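Following up on my earlier thread - several people asked me to post the actual chain instead of describing it. Fair enough. Here it is, all 327 residues.
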Amino acid sequence: MEKALVLLHTVNGQLPPAALETLGLAHTLGGGFDLGVIGAGAAAAAQQVSGGAAKCFAVEGEAFAVSRYSTDAAACEAVIRASGAPLILAPDSMRFHRALPGVAERLGAAIDTHVVSVAADGAVERWYYRQRVETTLRRGQRPWILLIEPGSQPAAQPQAGAAPELLDVACETRTNVEGFSTPLAGEQTIRPDAALLFVAGAGWTKKQKDGAAHVDEAAELILDFVRRTQCSLGSSKSLVDLSGEGEAVLPFLTHLHQVGQTGSSPRHKKGLATCCHGEEPHVVGWRFIQERRAVNLDPNCGWVRGKADVVYVADAFEVMRELLKLL
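Reply from S.P.:
Thanks for posting it. Predicted structure:
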């Protein structure tokens, strides 16, 4: 296997799980690798995981502490040139997904995103079309930048090594990052690293056994559960589409929460579906969930037909009330 450069970035001074997964992949290839880290606290973070690396580089400083295309591209280019490795492995994070295509153009390199496997013989597997199509490919062009899909590799155990070489990167930028804002008004409900994915279906907004809809109570129960458990919140397509049909909706759900064939395919250890039918277009988004459970009043729903490990035939409102008492 060719020599590789593992290119990582920090988040709040620490390496995120996706970075350790990319590093874990490099350890399995057997061709030797260099390590490069950019961002706030990059030098300290690099030294904590540089065990086994032939050379180690870091780019840090106020200009590189935040995600910004111009500074990220300059830092990544400097690390790649300093290493000279023909193969570059980097996590497919939002930060690198934006910066590295431009770096590839500067270096005359090839680049592939959503990579899920790299073999010792140089074969690479990657996803297309929202993870519906998987292909195997090889390229003769070098350098070759591979963005590794988060959650597709086991994480490496950090091994400390030598202190990295600090690279002095000059970069001009006209952009000042003043802070972050979110349309969820501070209510973070999408947590890719959470152990549990809680998915709400359209049944939450329908008439209940008393003949009335209880959308406000449904919203309160769901958000309370998400806050207490720090789980990630998902939604079926039918539920997020209700706003366009003039029906009552859960106000905190957007299409970013959508899980399924036209939504995301998360990788949480456990998943709990509530008031969802569990038909194939929805379940296809659950194929990486390790343990699947569902709550539905219909004993013949799609979840029962072999798509969930456990199905609770019960009223989701009653189940959530009892869960919140226990929590």
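The two ends are 50 Å apart (CA to CA). That should answer part of your original question.
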